[in-house]
Amino acid sequence: MPDPTDDLMTKLEVARRLRCSVRFIEKEVRRRRLFRTRLGRKTLFSPAEVARYIAANTESEGGRPAAVVVPTRRKGGKLPPVPQYV
Prior knowledge:
Blueprint: E1 9-10, H1 11-18, H2 22-30, E2 37-39, E3 42-45, H3 47-56
């Protein structure tokens, strides 16, 4: 039986995929721009989540992000303001 964590990526693997530092990955997790899976003490990322992050941060021809990230709820149940593009 295959291990369900085989396709999950570590912080180092995600950093190499995005060509950035592990510290940047940790900052993006804290900013809630990149979502992780915690298994005990391990922090892992699904390939689908990394692909979503890349798509959300890819600029279109107009210089704006091509995809809009759905905001998550803050404490108290309020949603953060959504940027308005004109």
